[in-house]
Amino acid sequence: MKHLIIICLLALLTPTITAQKKSKKEKKAEHKAMLEKQTRKLVDSKTFQFCVSQMLPANGSVRVLTTDYNVVLQNDTVNSYLPYFGRAYFVQYGSGESPMTFKTPITDYFAQTDKRDGYLIRFSAKNKSDKINFTFKISTNGSSTLSVTSTNRQSISYYGKLEGVGKE
Predict the structure, then answer these.
(1) Architecture (CATH level 2) of domain 50-168
(2) Angle CA 108–112–113, to nearest 5
């Protein structure tokens, strides 16, 4: 009698246990959908943080960064904290800090969905003596490329990940 009860319980519980387990494919698809939703939300809100992991100067090789550098966009203000390596055509006398470190309002904001299911965001900002153009290419999973062009310096690119503001 005991064996019959145990067999009946196992027969009843087995379908529910196997139904609760998700395959790797399903978990991966859910994770991808969650990243896409999160990225779209960040881009649409115009409030995000671009965390830099690598940089590519115009005349050089890729450099892996060990310090936390970022660009924070909040509505109509950019807070840029980026390193710069490259040729400067004009340097303000006595300047010792990076030309990519500033907080200022943005102009000429433009955002669109990219051809390959990503996003393209462009805007301009003016630091003490230079107009700087930012171009973000953001994939749906949040990985991003930032190209920075300037009137007084060579262009430079950064690679990293898009995150919510205040997230570490």
Answers:
(1) Beta Barrel (2.40)
(2) 165
